[in-house]
Design goal:
By secondary structure, the chain is of the alpha/beta class. It is built from four helices and nine strands; from the N terminus they run βαβαβββαβββαβ. The protein has helices at about 10-30, 45-60, 105-110, 160, and strands at about 5-10, 35-40, 60-70, 80, 90-100, 120-130, 140-145, 155, 165-170. The longest helix is centred in the N-terminal third of the chain and has 18 residues, at about 10-30. GO terms for molecular function: glycosyltransferase activity.
Amino acid sequence: MSSKKTLILNKEQIQQKSIRIAYQILEDNFEEETLVMVGIADRGYIFAQRLKAILEEISTKHIELIKLTIDKNARTLKASTDLDISIASNKTVILVDDVLNSGRTIAYGIGVFLNVSLSKMRTAVLIDRSHHQFPVFSDYYGVKLSTILKEHIEVVLQETDGQEDAAWLV
């Protein structure tokens, strides 16, 4: 694998994209009193925390936050949440991850809520790679790019990596 890294988003751009996504979520869900943000651990959860903070700054909506941990290597759905998923009942759920690649992780995330009666479900990602193997798409995204399969997207977030926020094409 090449050691060449190409910067896709820097810290300021990630912040700008996050604000734009938060406004899109707000506009798409103006009639909702409560939104349930479900962040896929680890980076998706951090991104969801950031979106929640922005939404709380720009609106009066009540925002619930659930941390969803998925075994991404399992061939069947193996997931757990930090809160009971019944709090999402009859509410709009925004499933959040850092990168949408094949769609498997988002599909597993959707699977967790199949037996919960939702108002609607949307997806938000920082980067959509357009390599979907599952019928999953991003409702809200920061950047959509086409890459070759050998390439990888590396998202660095201050909270998990101890480095300045950035997204790299590796």
